[in-house]
Amino acid sequence: MPNRRKLFIGAILLVVATFVLTAGGFLYLLNAGSADVVSTLNFFRALQIVKARYIEDVPMETLMTGAIKGMVNALGDPHSVYLDAKMYKEFMIETEGSFGGVGIVIGVKDKVLTVVSPIEGTPGEKAGIKSGDQILKIDGQDTKDLALDEAVNKIRGPEGSQVTLTIRRPSTQEVKDYTLTRSNIQIRTVEGKMLPDKIGYIRISMFNESTGADLNRKYQELEKEGMKAVILDLRDNPGGLLEESVKVANKFVPKGPVVSVVTRDGRRETHSSNLEAVKYPVVVLVNGGSASASEIVAGAIQDTGAGILVGTKTYGKGSVQTIMRLDNGTAIKLTIAKYLTPNGRSINGVGIEPDVKVEVPEPRQPGQKDIQLEKAIEILKSKL
User: Fold this and answer.
1) Is the pLDDT of residue 88 over 60?
2) Which residues are the active-site residues?
3) What domains appear along the chain, each with residue ranges and CATH number?
4) Pairing outcome for strands 356-357 and 98-101
5) C-alpha dist (Å) from residue 273 to 239, 278, 297
6) Does the pLDDT of residue 248 top 90, yes or no?
7) pTM to 2 decimals?
8) Is the CA virtual torsion 234, 240, 242, 248 positive or negative?
9) Are residues 16 and 43 in contact, defined by beta-carbon separation less than 8 angstroms?
10) Residue 116's closest CA among 131, 137, 138, 94?
11) SUPFAM superfamilies in the record, alphabetically (predicted)?
């Protein structure tokens, strides 16, 4: 047997021995069934064959990265993904409030890459991309075999560069190419103003690290102006950080549970509000682009009777992901739990039906009235 092959097999055996000798590896083999042990050994056998017999020499790092990606992809969960160093860095930048791209938040719905919502004032929103649009191609590459975060990585890029998205709009089945120039997306998540009759209007576009604090400031500003009722606009809000959604809920949900996070072993972690009493009548605006953390807030307000939901059914993302760092600046984003509303509802894949359904006619015309907002104002006027 050639020395090189002997050395390789020795290296493989060393990897296996190291795995077994670690606490995690020992416990795995101790608890694993015979089929699991055989599968593990098959993995190392396949690695040996590829490394020894493939026509070209392939770096071990490349093979192991491919194995990790394949393992996570095998879960069949669009929200669980392997993040290489570049993708991980960009993911962390997004949660901090700025990133380079076209300003659309995407997800997977019915196994199709779908726009959850465009971000206000960005190239995507200005081009007319809408919630529910399906992205068929990115720069000519079919998206059906792309993991969600791979698609995100392809859409993002340096400011000033261009990307072409081939989009199908389900309502009309029209397929159209959008060539967008990337810009530096600065996310200002909270905006607000006072409407007539002292009705405060607060718009939250997504939940990042500053959302809770920004909401508090805007809420206090409106209180100083004499606010008597409030509209919370969560339309086309794709979600974000769970902790920030709980901070927001503390302004609108009475004392008690806001959301429960349930893991695979049934352990439950409940996040609660400490608000003694709801101060003002509340209407929450939602639509098909309201997802994840925005559904946590909307669901808690609906379940507790703290306000009225107006609009259309929400997106239906009721799972919780966490980032687990690996070596070399890489990570796995993994679904670790589902969340339940205060009444124990799981909305994953289902969404939340509003209390008052108000459909927006498509296609929207320039200058068309916001009939959902008008309905919210009408409801609150009746309560003043």
Assistant:
1) yes
2) 292, 303, 317
3) 3-58 (no CATH), 98-185 (2.30.42.10), 187-381 (3.90.226.10)
4) unpaired
5) 19, 11, 11
6) yes
7) 0.69
8) negative
9) no
10) 131
11) ClpP/crotonase, PDZ domain-like
